[in-house]
TrEMBL record:
<feature type="domain" description="NAD(P)-binding">
    <location>
        <begin position="6"/>
        <end position="318"/>
    </location>
</feature>
<dbReference type="InterPro" id="IPR036291">
    <property type="entry name" value="NAD(P)-bd_dom_sf"/>
</dbReference>
<dbReference type="GO" id="GO:0042351">
    <property type="term" value="P:'de novo' GDP-L-fucose biosynthetic process"/>
</dbReference>
<dbReference type="GO" id="GO:0070401">
    <property type="term" value="F:NADP+ binding"/>
</dbReference>
<keyword id="KW-0456">Lyase</keyword>
<feature type="active site">
    <location>
        <position position="161"/>
    </location>
</feature>
<protein>
    <recommendedName>
        <fullName>GDP-mannose 4,6-dehydratase</fullName>
        <ecNumber>4.2.1.47</ecNumber>
    </recommendedName>
</protein>
<dbReference type="Pfam" id="PF16363">
    <property type="entry name" value="GDP_Man_Dehyd"/>
</dbReference>
<dbReference type="GO" id="GO:0008446">
    <property type="term" value="F:GDP-mannose 4,6-dehydratase activity"/>
</dbReference>
<comment type="function">
    <text>Catalyzes the conversion of GDP-D-mannose to GDP-4-dehydro-6-deoxy-D-mannose.</text>
</comment>
<comment type="similarity">
    <text>Belongs to the NAD(P)-dependent epimerase/dehydratase family. GDP-mannose 4,6-dehydratase subfamily.</text>
</comment>
<dbReference type="InterPro" id="IPR016040">
    <property type="entry name" value="NAD(P)-bd_dom"/>
</dbReference>
<dbReference type="InterPro" id="IPR006368">
    <property type="entry name" value="GDP_Man_deHydtase"/>
</dbReference>
<keyword id="KW-0521">NADP</keyword>
Length: 329
């Protein structure tokens, strides 16, 4: 019988790649949608006929419980939540509600559906939590691995850290197969335009086509470990297929700067970034994390996971995709 997966945040970048990947593996895939979400007008429009849907809100435990009861999944991938870090200073409480408490509500739904308590030994639904490198924040060691100390630097990072700890706590308390992937930045042509890589590749294409002249950016020296989202969803799936549940860091292990991203994207469309990029102090964050770089050795060794695209190939692919899309209207 086909395995069943339930994905929250299915209309997001990662949700769309994960749904494609799981459908390709023969899974029956369910997506959790918010009340106002229209899948036909989202990144999964091309998959709508192959998916099943159920509606739930992350601040409503009963709706999450009934979503789990309806889908009866073998695996749950929790990708829902606020993902754009800067706005979380303005919506700190909402971010905590969804990215933090939402994880607890989902774990409780699983516990109830599977009938688990302190005396039971797990079983039932396997759970994946989307943890983030933002939990490391003000880094004490580089590169960061699974046991590096967390020092989050935004309400987003703090809420994700709660989600991470409560997932491990349910694993240890109830024997649940519940794991977190500590994912470093991952990008693609489906990335939201507010994130810096896509903001840059879209602007390079728009400037090339004469639709725009300048690109305003914040900290050009900020460095990140950027990988390809299509690779990262494969790691999520692998994490739920292991004999023993445990957390993994997923990243490329290489660091690049915002400046370098601009150089590659503009070069890809035949332009010089220095003619178009303007530094805007308003785009600099209140508490920045400057050097986040993964040590993915555990994922390499235990999951056999490796990224398929280099950073340069990733940014080139994104810039080319944007130029193609904007040229053809
Ligand atoms: P990040 O991604 O905050 O790392 O979180 P983002 O692309 O927004 O920022 C990356 C770095 O670029 C610097 N920067 C700018 N960022 C944006 N968005 N816009 C700008 O104009 C700009 N100029 C410079 C930022 O200061 C930052 O240092 C992403 C999200 O996907 C999270 O949800 C996820 O958890 C982490 O990655 C891992």
């Amino acid at each position: 019988m086909a395995k069943r997966a339930l994905i929250t945040g299915i209309t997001g970048q990662d949700g769309s790649y994960l749904a494609e990947h799981l459908l390709g593996l023969g899974y029956q895939v369910w997506g959790v949608l918010r009340h106002d979400s229209d899948p036909a007008a989202s990144r999964i429009a091309h998959l709508v006929g192959d998916l099943s849907f159920t509606r739930a809100e992350f601040d409503d435990s009963a709706s999450l419980l009934s979503a789990v009861e309806r889908a009866r999944p073998d695996e749950i991938y929790n990708l829902a939540g606020t993902s754009y870090v800067p706005t979380t200073w303005r919506h700190a409480e909402l971010t905590t509600e969804v990215n933090g408490m939402g994880v607890l509500r989902m774990l409780e739904a699983i516990r109830v559906v599977c009938g688990l308590d302190e005396s039971t030994a797990g079983g039932g639904i396997r759970f994946y939590q989307a943890s983030s490198s933002e939990m490391f924040g003000k880094v004490t060691e580089t590169p960061q691995h699974e046991t590096t100390i967390f020092h989050p630097r935004s309400p987003y990072g703090v809420a994700k850290t709660y989600g991470h700890h409560i997932t491990r706590n349910y694993r240890e308390s109830f024997g649940m197969y519940a794991v977190s992937g500590i994912m470093f930045n991952h990008e693609s042509p489906r990335r939201g335009s507010e994130f810096v890589t896509r903001k840059i590749t879209l602007a390079a294409a728009n400037i090339k086509l004469g639709h725009q002249d300048k690109l305003h950016l914040g900290n050009l020296d900020a460095q990140r470990d950027w990988g390809y989202a299509g690779d990262y969803v494969k790691a999520m799936h692998l994490m739920l297929q292991q004999p023993t549940p445990t957390d993994y860091v997923i990243g490329t292990g290489t660091l690049h700067s915002v400046r370098e991203t601009a150089r590659i994207a503009f070069e890809t469309v035949g332009l010089d970034w220095r003619d178009h990029v303007v530094v805007d102090p308003d785009l600099i964050r209140p508490a920045e994390v400057e050097t986040l770089c993964a040590n993915p050795a555990k994922a390499h060794a235990e999951l056999g996971w490796k990224p398929s695209l280099t950073f340069e190939e990733l940014i080139q692919t994104m810039a080319e995709a944007d130029l193609r899309r904007l040229s053809t209207g």
